[in-house]
Design goal:
The protein is α/β, with parallel strands linked by helices and 456 residues long. The chain folds into two domains: 244 residues, Rossmann fold; 179 residues, Rossmann fold (3-Layer(aba) Sandwich), CATH 3.40.50. Helix content is 41%, strand content 14%. The chain contains 18 helices and 13 strands. The strands form two sheets. A seven-stranded parallel beta sheet has the order 3-2-1-4-5-6-7, sandwiched between helices. It has a six-stranded parallel beta sheet with strand order 10-9-8-11-12-13, with helices on both faces. The longest helix is centred in the middle third of the chain and has 17 residues. The two termini are 42 Å apart. The C terminus is likely disordered.
């Protein structure tokens, strides 16, 4: 299919990318930023990344991710600046670089505590440190635009202050929703939420462009902030990198097991996402169809909390579960390519799990445990190669699982064929779209002038 997207100007511009989470940190939150940095130079934009120290405590690390940028770094097409450490993380560092993902109950409690004392989030201590490093960057480089990605929402505050100081336009990139996101934020009182909304309001008013990962986030912003109009907020979804898929295709046959019905979950279980309903469905399905118990492998790739390991043992499913742990990205995608069915779960419509888009890239069948009418449900429906169930409906999940098992036994598991749909989530295509937004916002596009600031 011919690409009719307008090509960005060939003149190189420089964009300062503010990203607290960046490789060698792992998990899906870094992938979006990493791939933009990788591909933006192809479209006339030179990324300068402002991020945290390499030894910042985190839940997972993947040292191979930076290898994707090595050629661009060596040639000067990408520059990475790392700040000093955030003093507020000293206690965390005493336990080592790798943190343990807490139980969901503790995640909720900790979020409420944080919202009392540290607005907009627990990373606010990084703001002044990042500003100091940004001063060095502006002294050494001409910056045409600023791109800040969140969470953490502290990144937005840094961008806003830099915009005011240097009069450089900035783009706010929402990977997940902010104030009204029940997964990430739990406010102790209405006053705490009101304060958070004021911070978001001020950041949005000062911005020159806004991108969000899905339509629901856009609708929420437009309904909450009436000074925004439809064209102020641009949907820039997550995606997959065809390079990763092609590498994984070559490696997958080495770990595939034709006699095993492998159902894989990639990633971690944050607040609002739990494997419990699926595990219960599996237990009941095996009871009804004992043959399933002899073939099924539930494959967990990523961070699995201790509470769920205990649950697996309690349900007597340990013999059907394989835990890979957190893997380098290429190995993680290889696990997907070596699977028969991929599954995901989410209970809200204000988060956009990056794994879903990588699932799309594999063209594999997807078991989607998502709310009816949600953005994820609509996308999975458009993808086509999927079976849907409510995230907490054990009977629906069991029915879908047994249907997939029957297709697997008959060697009839389908492959997604909707190439026009898949192309929209190609990381290179999405980077081109971002380049166009940056170019228009900064007034660098031939024949365009810089967008006027909103008057009211």
């Amino acid at each position: 299919m011919q690409d009719t997207t307008p090509q960005p100007t060939q003149r190189e511009n420089t964009v300062l990318i503010i990203a607290y989470y960046f490789p060698p940190m792992g998990l899906s939150g870094v992938q979006r930023t990493l791939k933009f940095v990788k591909y933006l130079p192809k479209f006339g934009w030179k990324p300068i990344v402002l991020t945290t120290p390499i030894d910042t405590p985190y839940y997972a690390f993947d040292d191979t991710l930076l290898d994707e940028l090595q050629d661009e770094i060596n040639s000067g097409k990408v520059i990475i600046y790392r700040t000093e450490a955030d003093p507020s993380l000293k206690r965390a560092k005493k336990s080592g670089k790798l943190l343990k993902l807490p139980r969901q109950g503790w995640q909720r409690l900790r979020s409420k505590i944080v919202q009392i004392f540290r607005q907009p989030d627990s990373r606010i201590g990084w703001k002044n440190i990042a500003m100091q490093k940004a001063t060095e960057i502006f002294a050494e480089h001409h910056v045409d635009a600023i791109f800040s990605t969140a969470p953490p929402y502290t990144d937005f505050l840094i961008a806003r202050e830099l915009k005011e100081k240097y009069n450089v336009p900035y783009l706010m990139d929402y990977r997940d929703g902010w104030v009204d996101n029940p997964v990430l934020n739990f406010y102790l009182t209405p006053l705490h939420k009101k304060k958070a909304r004021k911070i978001e309001y001020e950041a949005l008013r000062a911005s020159d462009a806004i991108t969000v990962a899905n339509r629901k986030m856009k609708e929420i912003l437009l309904s909450n902030y009436l000074f925004l109009d439809w064209n102020d907020v641009f949907i820039l979804p997550h995606g997959f990198d065809p390079d990763d898929i092609e590498k994984a295709k070559l490696l997958a046959p080495n770990i595939a097991a034709p006699e095993t019905f492998r159902v894989t979950y990639s990633g971690a279980f944050y607040v609002g996402r739990s494997p419990k309903p699926l595990l219960q469905a599996v237990k009941e399905a095996i009871s009804e169809v004992p043959e399933l118990g002899q073939c099924l492998e539930l494959n967990f790739v990523g961070v699995l909390q201790k509470e769920y390991r205990k649950l697996i043992k309690k349900m007597n499913l340990a013999g059907n579960v394989t835990e890979q742990g957190y893997l380098p990205h290429t190995e993680s995608v290889t696990q997907l390519m070596a699977s028969d069915v991929l599954w995901m779960t989410m209970s809200d419509d204000l988060s956009a799990p990056g794994k879903l888009y990588e699932y799309f890239g594999t063209r594999k069948p997807i078991l989607g445990l998502v709310p009816t009418g949600s953005h994820a449900a609509r996308m999975l429906g458009e993808y086509g190669n999927t079976k849907l169930a409510q995230p907490d409906n054990v009977q629906e999940i069991k029915k879908a699982l047994l249907e997939y098992f029957a297709l697997w036994k008959a060697w009839k598991l389908p492959i997604a064929q909707n190439e026009d749909f898949l192309r929209k989530y190609d990381r290179q295509y999405l980077s081109k779209e971002l380049a166009l937004q940056l170019t228009f916002m900064s007034g660098s596009l031939d024949g365009e002038i810089k967008k006027l600031r909103r008057k009211y």
